[in-house]
Each structure stands twice: as structure tokens, then as C-alpha cells.
């Protein structure tokens, strides 16, 4: 029988074994998911700040933004704040969910056609002027990638996972 020798750092091997044990703990998964969720919130914030979708295509400017020199979807920033606050993020060890209670979020994510319900025309203000229209087309201005992740989101989530793993392996 031939002798086998093993060389290397048993301290490093022991640390690796302890790290592998931590990977199975629910708090490890919970921490990783929270890190990923925060990265997603940051990506949403980046979309609003840059006025672009998750694929970095510019949003079509709103009539209000064009009339006033403001930014699209940033009149009060209510939607942005609702999507980037910690209260928008729900996590558990299986994953994370981002949501909002702002009723018009879906209109801006997917686009919509608005028509009057009781009158023949809609009447609303654009800048200082009142405007009437039979219908208004709101273009989609997505801030969450659907149905699949965009390259920017993939990279951000990979970086968040890598940073969390590097922090935990030490």
C-alpha cells in the first residue's frame, strides 16, 4: 500500500468547512436575500434618477416635464420614494418582493390609455394651461425589468451576491 500525503493549511480548510455550514443556516439566506433586495431598490432608484428603463433606454418625456422643464415621473417623487424605501421591500429566505401602494405605479410600468367615464373629454392641467382631450395615451416607463432581468440588473444582483459572500467568508 502506497502512502498518501496531504499538504496545505488545515486552518483554511476548517474555515471553509465552517463557511459551508453557515451556508445552510436560514439567517445566511435571509441576509443574502436582503442584500439582493437592496440592490434591486438601488436599480429602481437609478431608473428614476436617470429617467430610463432597466435596459437603459430613455423614458419618453412626459408632457408636464416638457412644459415645465422638469423630470418625467418626478413631479412629487412619490412613486419613486414608494418604490425605493425599505418599506417597499419584503424578504424571506426564499426571495424578495418589491411593491408599492401608489395606485398609478402600474400605469407607468406598463402604459395605459385613459378615457373619460362621465364626460366626453378629459380636462387637466399641463403647466399653467388647461387642456381637454378625448383620450390620453400614457407610454410605458418601466422601472422594474419584466419578464426577465436586464443586463444592468443582472450585474447589480451578481455584485450584491458576491459582496455578501465575500463578507461572510471572512
Shape: elongated
Q: Widest sheet: strand order?
A: 1-2
The total strand number stands at 6
Secondary-structure element pattern, one letter each: HHHHEEHEEEEH
Mean pLDDT over the residues: 90
- Please tally the helical runs, counting DSSP H or I stretches of 4 or more residues: 6
Residue share in β-strands: 5-15%
Nearest-angstrom radius of gyration? 24 Å
Termini Cα gap: 39 Å
Structural class: alpha+beta
InterPro entries: Phage_virion_morphogenesis (IPR006522)
Protein name: Phage virion morphogenesis protein
Organism: Meiothermus taiwanensis WR-220
Pfam families: Phage_tail_S
Please characterize this protein's 3D structure.
Residues 47-92 are annotated as: Disordered. InterPro entries: Phage_virion_morphogenesis. It comes from Meiothermus taiwanensis WR-220. This is Phage virion morphogenesis protein. The chain has helices at 10-23, 26-50, 63-68, 78-84, 105-110, 151-169; strands at 89-92, 95-98, 112-114, 122-126, 129-133, 136-138. The chain is built from 6 helices and 6 strands; from the N terminus they run ααααββαββββα. The chain is an alpha+beta fold. The two termini are 39 Å apart. The mean pLDDT is 90. The protein has a two-stranded antiparallel ribbon. The radius of gyration is 24 Å and the shape is elongated. 14% of the residues are buried. It has one domain.
